[in-house]
Amino acid sequence: MKKKIAVESQLSNISEYLTHQGYDVLNFQHNREAGAQFANVAAVVTSGMDENFLGMHDIKTQAPVIDASGLSPQQIKEMLDERALETESSL
C-alpha cells in the first residue's frame, strides 16, 4: 500500500519525485481548510514558509511535518523512509 504524503503545492519537484518513488502525493495550499486534508497522511512536507516569527508552525496535524528548506527530494525521501521505519518498529 502506498504511503500518502501531503506536499505543499509550490514544491512540485518534490511531489513529482515522491510520486515516481511510489508515494501517493496530496498537494495542498495553506488555507483554513488545509488541516482537514492532513487527517490520513503519513507526513506533511512544507516549504518552511508556514513558520511565524516565533518559529511555530501554522500546520496542525498528528503526522510528522518536514521542512523542505535546503533539502533535495532525495533527502526528503530518506527522511520519510526513516520515519516509516521508526513508526513500524514502535508498533
Q: Tell me the Rg in angstroms.
A: 13 Å
Number of helices: 3
If strands are numbered along the chain, what order do they take across the biggest sheet? 2-1-3-4
Average pLDDT for all residues: 80
Q: How would you sum up the major sheet?
A: 4 strands, parallel
The helix/strand series, from N terminus to C terminus, equals EHEHEEH
CATH-scheme architecture: 3-Layer(aba) Sandwich
InterPro entries: UPF0180
SSE blueprint:
Elements lengths: L3 E5 L3 H9 L3 E5 L5 H4 L5 E4 L18 E3 L5 H17 L2
Parallel strand pairs: 1-2, 1-3, 3-4
Helix pairs in contact: 1-3
Structure, described:
The protein is an alpha/beta fold and 91 residues long. It has a single domain (4-89), classed as Rossmann fold (3-Layer(aba) Sandwich), CATH 3.40.50. Helices cover 33% and strands 19% of the residues. The protein is built from three helices and four strands. It has helices at 12-20, 34-37, 73-89; strands at 4-8, 24-28, 43-46, 65-67. The chain has a four-stranded parallel sheet with strand order 2-1-3-4, covered by helices on one side. Helix 1 packs across helix 3 (73-89). The chain is globular. The relative contact order is 0.21. Pfam families: UPF0180. InterPro entries: UPF0180.
